[in-house]
Amino acid sequence: MAELETRQNRILEQLAQLKQQISSLKSDLNIPTTSQDTITGCFQVGLKKTSLPESLVITANPNQPPYSLELLQLLLQNEISLIVTSYLHSSVTTLPIPALQLQKTLENFVVSSNAPKLKVCLIWKMIDSSVDLMLTPSGVSGEVNLLRYLTRLTNTQLSYDSSKDALEIESLLDQCYLLVRSRTKSERANILQLFNKSLAKSTWLLGRNQASVVDVAAYSAIKQCGSSKELNANLNKWFQNCASLVNTKC
Predict the structure, then answer these.
(1) Ranges for the AIMP2 thioredoxin-like domain (predicted)?
(2) Could you report the per-residue pLDDT of 132-164, keeping only the tens digit for each?
(3) Whole-number Cα distances in Å, 106 to 11, 49, 65
(4) In a 10 Å sphere around its CB, with 0-12 CB exposed, 13-18 middle and 19+ buried, how is residue 137 labelled?
(5) CATH class as words, domain 166-249
């Protein structure tokens, strides 16, 4: 229990630091600050109470759009409403079509009126990683690590710390990271084979009957590296299931 309290206090400290950083960034971007831009404590999310920030600031490389956000919006809509607003950093003159399409999907999503609101400030910026979540002192770098952070920050259907297959989830998330950075078709084939083994004859990865954080990460990684044409029939059916979820919400 003491360890849990220490961990919770550490998260609260990070959220307080995030609030200060968000305020500074909003000032730089000339975004109006309202009295509601505070950290809201004790939202009822899932089956436990947790502290949820009002806002998150994410920078994303327009050449590697974070497709995980569109699945997160849909899968968590009854637990957390993700309200995304996008901005262009001076390092980006125009958005590539895939990033522009993703931006439109995210901003046009109709959120639930009952679920707690989480504002996401998405800044398109030329960065070395695909995604950076602005936290202090070190921040969170990479889309997979962003997903890890969000699942630990909240208690939703995508959280997995207490799952019996948590180690397998961590391993597959690492493979998603490697897939985006793969350079050859052979490298991608080895990773896709692991996904196929995890899928087996189920609808979703890990042999589950509903989507998990691994499905979210894998879907985004495959879209980013353009390997959807390299999927076998089994994985392609799974990929189309993910895509149909996104198309349904549009």
Answers:
(1) 55-137
(2) 998 877 789 999 999 999 999 888 999 999 999
(3) 27, 27, 12
(4) exposed
(5) mainly alpha
Q: What is the pTM of this model?
A: 0.79
Kindly state the DSSP code that residue 121 receives in the 8-state scheme: E
Q: What is the pLDDT of residue 48?
A: 44
Alpha-carbon distance of 234 to 249, in angstroms, equals 24
Q: Which residue has the tokens 């009126």?
A: 113
Both tokens of residue 109?
Answer: 């999503």
The answer to whether the 2-153 and 166-249 domains have the same CATH topology is: yes
Most distant pair of Cα atoms in the chain: their distance: 53
158 Cβ partners below 8 Å, 6+ apart?
A: 72, 75, 76, 147, 150, 151, 212, 213, 216
| Total number of residues shown for the chain | 250
In the numeric block, the tokens 């936290």 are attached to 135
Closest listed residue to residue 65, CA positions, set 105, 93, 91, 102: 102
DSSP H or E segment with residue 124: strand 117-124
The rounded distance, in Å, linking the Cα atoms of 56 and 72 is 14
CA 214-117-119 angle, to 5 degrees, is 80
